[in-house]
Design a protein that fits this description.
Radius of gyration: 22 Å
Shape: globular
Order of helices and strands: HEHHEHEHEEEHEHEHEHEHHHHHHH
Number of domains: 2
Mean pLDDT: 93
Oligomer: single chain
Protein name: ABC transporter substrate-binding protein
Family: Belongs to the bacterial solute-binding protein SsuA/TauA family.
Strand content: 15-25%
Pfam families: NMT1_2 (PF13379)
Number of helices: 16
Distance between the termini: 51 Å
Number of strands: 10
Helix content: 40-55%
Largest sheet: 5 strands, mixed
Subcellular location: Periplasm
Strand order of the largest sheet: 2-1-3-10-4
CATH class of the largest domain: Alpha Beta
Keywords: Signal
Structural class: alpha/beta
CATH architecture of the largest domain: 3-Layer(aba) Sandwich
Low-confidence stretches: 2-21
Length: about 325
């Protein structure tokens, strides 16, 4: 009887061990905003790539770079999806637990120049003397905006009236209500304005500014050190999604992520995905290279927003992405 009891106990232990090995791990992700610009992230969620890795990703939209970084620094989130410039700001303040960029999602600026009137033969010098409704001072969109203006021979503080005191969430409505001759907008708002006849896309800041680590996944060094397997799985799921976006049609991508943009028509999502993909905005792998890092700091420096030049190796870890790609 004793041996039967031991045998039954052994049989009960086996499924408990198996269940423990199959345990799903939760990762809390804070995204800086909700945007079609981040399509591969939503594909990873909707196509089950995180689930395949045994991960439960809890996604929260924190609406702003400062709030997103605060969530990570205060342990309110494990991973942030935000512009790499935020990690530089934190490091320049003397952080003892640096926030490390480990997987890149977008590699160009995601904004477009929208004019109030249709302009068939647009040239950048047409902005001279105009009123330009730009993005929030210190943020990556604003810095790229000024960089592109200067690149095209325009002094943003002397050649036009530059408005930068409108909150990110209210920029589109401010333009719609009559503020500005030109505005710098993300999608899908730029395309929606075109459809409604409220504005017309005349140029892409992403094409003009070149490759930068515009939006990356980052986490505190302590989190990366203590959760190596989970971070590997997370990066693997993102890489699968990046490849999926490149090998499927814009319509298929739009259908995959539509549940994250319920108020946006499927046709508009498809158009935006196609526009971002055609200009190379979606990174095709998670590696943030040094040339992009240097370009980012040059743009920040040009805008007078670079607190200190930080070495690539200090805030960028490519070993995780490289390992995943080589598998």
């Amino acid at each position: 009887m004793r041996y039967v009891s031991l045998f039954l106990t052994f049989l009960l232990i086996i499924p408990l061990v198996a269940c423990n090995n199959d345990k799903t791990e939760t990762i809390r992700v804070a995204e800086v905003t909700r945007s079609i610009f981040y399509a591969p992230q939503y594909v990873a969620l909707s196509e089950g790539f995180f689930e395949e890795e045994g991960l439960n990703v809890e996604l929260t939209t924190t609406w702003g770079g400062d709030k997103t970084m605060t969530a990570v620094l205060s342990d309110g989130a494990d991973i942030a999806l935000v512009g790499s410039e935020t990690s530089i700001y934190v490091q320049a303040q003397g952080s003892s637990d640096p926030v490390i960029n480990f997987a890149q999602l977008t590699q160009t600026d995601g904004t477009f120049l929208v004019a109030r009137e249709k302009m068939e033969d647009f040239s950048w010098d047409q902005l001279k003397g105009s009123t330009f409704l730009g993005q929030r001072k210190g943020g990556m969109p604003q810095m790229v905006g000024e960089f592109v203006l200067k690149k095209n021979g325009i002094d943003p503080h002397n050649d036009l009236e530059l408005i930068q005191n409108v909150d990110f969430a209210n920029i589109a409505s401010a333009f719609a209500s009559g503020t500005g001759d030109f505005v710098q907008l993300f999608e899908p708002q730029a395309s929606i304005f075109e459809q409604e006849g409220k504005g017309f896309i005349v140029a892409s800041f992403g094409k003009e500014s070149g490759h930068v680590p515009y939006t990356t996944f980052m986490a505190k060094q302590s989190y990366l050190d203590g959760n190596k397997e989970a971070v590997d799985k997370f990066t693997r799921a993102i890489y699968k999604a990046q490849q999926w976006v490149q090998t499927h049609s814009a319509k298929e991508v739009a259908e995959s992520i539509q549940s994250y943009f319920e108020d946006t028509p499927l046709e508009t999502i498809e158009m935006v995905v196609d526009r971002y993909r055609s200009q190379g905005s979606y990174a095709t792998d998670p590696i943030l290279d040094e040339e992009e890092w240097d370009n980012l700091q040059n743009i920040m420096d040009e805008a007078g927003e670079l607190p200190a030049r930080i070495e690539y190796s200090t805030l960028v870890n490519t070993s995780i992405a490289e390992k995943i790609i080589s598998e």
